[in-house]
Amino acid sequence: MKKRVLSLVIAVLTSEAAMAGHDADGNLVIEINRGLPHLETAVRESTASVQASPVSDGGELLQSLTGVSAIRMGGRALDPVIRGQKETQLNILLDGGYIHGGCPNRMDPPTAYTSVDSYDRVTVIKGNRTVVYGGGGSGGTVLFERDWPMIDEKGYSGKVSGSYRGNGEQWELGADLAVGNDDGYIRFIAHEGESENYEDGAGQEVSSKYDSQSNAILGGIRLGENTTLQASFEKSDEEDVLFPGAQMDSPYADAENSRIKLTHQFTQGALRELKIEAYQSDVIHLMENSMMSSPSTSDTQGMRVVIDAQLHDMDWVLGADVQNNERNAVAYMKSNGMAAFSQWPGVEIKQAGLFLEGSKVLSQDDVLKGGLRYDRVEASASRATETFGMTTPSAQYLTVNGSSETDSNENNIGGFASWTHRLNNQYTVETTFSRSVRTADATERYVAKTSGMTPWIGNPLLAPEKHHQLEAVLASKHESLNWSLTGWINYVDDYILRHKSGGTERYDNVDARLYGIEADIAYRIDENLTLGTAFTWLQGENRDDNQDLSRISPLELKTTLDYQKQQWKAGVEWKLVAAQNNVCLSSDPNCGGQDVRQTPGYGLVNLHGEYASENGMTIAMGIDNLFDKDYTLHESRDYVLDANPIQVAEPGQNIWLRVSASF
Question: What ranges make up the beta strands (E) of 312-338?
Answer without folding.
Answer: 314-333
